[in-house]
Write a structure and sequence with these properties.
It is a single chain. The chain contains 17 helices and 13 strands. Strands 3-2-1-4-5-6-7 form a 7-stranded parallel β-sheet, with helices on both faces. It is globular and about 60 Å long.
Length: about 375
């Protein structure tokens, strides 16, 4: 019997709470001998796991190296890279699936016998372009990584068509698309009650302008309420938001729930707000997990005029698109909601649940890795 090819899934993220990487593990664990390298414990079903130290950063902090543009020194000095090199044997794996740009040079240096697939979760050179220091010091480093290493990957994917197009335009890299779709869940459409329950979940980061939700809900009618799940990425900012919301009784902050419980939690609501002001390139082209989780939960969606999300909302009739990204536009849309309109969106989500599921997307990964394995 021929031995299955070995596949290392490499990420500088906590793998057990990274939905996109967990989907890769689930997809490949029966088809390859899967090993993982990441922060935290091993995901279920892998053959080997190489845990990175929790304090080993995967992003640059060598200010002198960045200023003097000694980018090879900067990359090789990343604590996560040094830790991974100490753990991972060179030439051991047939294939490496490298998540995000910061793992790609390491994956190539590990000399997999057949090749590397690079899954780019963002357009790295413009990821935090709203920050001046980032544009001046980190963006040139990201462009260097792209120019130097993307061509070494056997195949590349990203999360939305806009991001994939940008990689091809700037670096000539053919880039497939695997959206952050959620796995298919059997669900049912619940009728919308007179009191409409809204939900929004987000990273607590200032550039996301979460204060828009609080402004939009000021003076909201008593039939409308909003629950917010905000991760404490920037604790001072989250504290500001909660202080602002104290005078808005229609808003409640609730604790995060485990990823496996998220769709079931969302199904208790009527509409998910996936409203992302385009403060940088990646937010403009975002097609986030929460969009697809709402579809699997069989609830409606309200989005801003973000191209990728608006296109799917229009195609499947999943919800409403605001006129612009202002709090006023969001308020106008929220206050015009009716149970009848939301019921229609929920029925549309039921129809779209299979075509917008992760299972329909992951064939792109499967084909890419299979093509690399076929070179054996």
């Amino acid at each position: 019997m021929t031995e299955l090819p070995s596949l290392l899934i490499l990420t500088f993220s906590p793998i057990r709470s990274d939905p996109r990487v967990l989907k890769q593990v689930e997809l490949f664990k029966e088809k390859y001998r899967v090993s993982t390298c990441a922060y935290g414990g091993a995901p279920d079903g892998v053959e080997e796991h190489y845990p990175l130290p929790e304090d080993s950063r995967g992003w640059p902090s060598d200010k002198l190296g960045l200023v003097s543009r000694q980018y090879a020194k900067v990359y090789n000095g990343l604590p996560a890279v040094k830790s991974a090199r100490a753990l991972l044997p060179k030439g051991r794996f047939d294939i490496i699936l490298a998540n995000d740009l910061n793992t790609l040079p390491l994956a190539l240096d590990l000399e997999p016998r057949l090749g590397v697939h690079s899954d780019l979760h963002e357009f790295a050179p413009r990821e935090k372009e709203d920050n001046l220091k980032w544009r001046l010091f980190i963006a040139p480093f990201m462009r260097w990584l792209c120019s130097r290493y993307l061509a070494g990957a056997s195949s590349v994917t990203s999360v939305s068509q806009g991001i994939a197009d940008e990689y091809f335009k700037d670096y000539g890299t053919p880039t497939g698309v695997v959206t952050n779709a959620a796995p298919y869940v059997e669900g049912r459409v619940e009728p919308t009650p007179e009191k409409v329950r809204l939900i929004h979940s987000a990273a607590g980061q200032r550039y996301r302008k979460l204060e828009n939700f609080i402004e939009a809900m000021k003076g909201a009618p008593d039939w409308l309420s909003l629950d917010m799940i905000v991760m404490p990425n920037e604790p001072d900012y989250v504290a500001e938001l909660k202080a602002m919301a104290e005078s808005v009784p229609s808003i409640t902050f609730r604790e995060p729930v485990p990823y496996k419980e998220l769709v079931a939690t969302l199904s208790k609501y009527d509409v998910s707000l996936v409203f992302l002001p385009p403060t940088n390139f990646n937010l403009k082209n975002a097609l986030p997990n929460k969009f697809f989780e709402a579809v699997q939960a069989r609830i409606g969606l309200i989005v801003g005029p973000s191209p990728a999300m608006a296109g799917l909302v229009e195609k499947y009739g999943l919800g409403a698109i605001t006129e612009d990204f202002s709090a006023e536009s969001l308020r106008k849309t929220l206050w015009s909601l009716t149970p009848e309109a939301i019921d229609g969106w929920k029925r549309a989500a039921e129809t779209a649940a299979r075509p917008l599921s992760a299972e329909s997307q992951m064939a792109v990964w499967e084909t890419a890795v299979k093509e690399i394995a076929g070179t054996r």
